[in-house]
Amino acid sequence: MLLEIRDIHVHYGKIAALKGITASVDQGEIVTLIGANGAGKTTTLKTVSGLRSLSAGGIVFDGRDISKMPGHKRVLAGIGQAPEGRGIFPGMTVEENLLMGAYARKDDSSKELAEAYELFPRLAERKSQMGGTMSGGEQQMLAIGRALMARPKVLLLDEPSMGLAPMLVQQIFTIIQEINRRGTTVLLVEQNAQQALQIAHRAYVLETGRVVKTAPAAELLDDPEVRAAYLGGGAAQGTAAPGASPGASRDGGPEAAPDTTASDSGPERGPEGGASK
């Protein structure tokens, strides 16, 4: 198993954000985490990448316990992340943003740069353009390309379709499948549960900091409870549907609702502009 999340607990002050999450991602898989706002999805990714500290439990990556490993060393170990809100550097060019993804590497990154431009031709066309002047879809491509520059064994993707037009959403999910086809394992957090389950191999359903269901993604697409709660079939009793207002977070935790008012028609917010969960 490439990534093992073992009964992890995470707190924001006195608030329990994760209450014993256990999950795994095997080499070559796309695994998705779905759930309502406040369920703990983004906190799980941040904990795997080292941005949040564990209160209890452990994380094993590629056979090594990384529970106490600093975040920058996890990047070198093979964990890459494209964060919610994209987090691009608005005052840097596209190419400079991409090269920042390889900052910690000591070897030549020209091969990865060429591959990023092959995967995202739009970035190649605009390599000298400032990141902050690009549209939301272009910034999402840039965030993913930057993460790939570190040659990750597993790519953590947090809400890659947020605020994008439907045509661009489909394009982003097609690119995720291509990245996986080329050999990169993917752990995906996505409010668009329908799209996520269509491309994933397996899925975990999170509620209030716990895993409440796990199965092959195709099975969850046909699960009546999952369809009712997350796939537009009407809210199941006691389960908040995706897109609920920020105050509807059931655990009262810090995971905020995504900004669904964003469009792909203009520049996105800067690195600190994305909502955190």
From TrEMBL:
Transmembrane segments: none
Annotated ABC transporter domain residues: 3-233
GO biological process per UniProt: L-amino acid transport
A Pfam family annotated for this UniProt entry: ABC_tran
SMART domains with a match to the protein in the record: AAA
One example GO MF annotation: ATP binding
Alphabetic keyword roster: Amino-acid transport, ATP-binding, Nucleotide-binding, Transport
Residue segments, region Disordered: 233-277
Biased composition (Low complexity): 237-251
Domain of life: Bacteria
CDD domains: ABC_TM1139_LivF_branched (cd03224)
Signal sequence region: none
Family the entry assigns: Belongs to the ABC transporter superfamily.
Name of this protein: ABC transporter ATP-binding protein
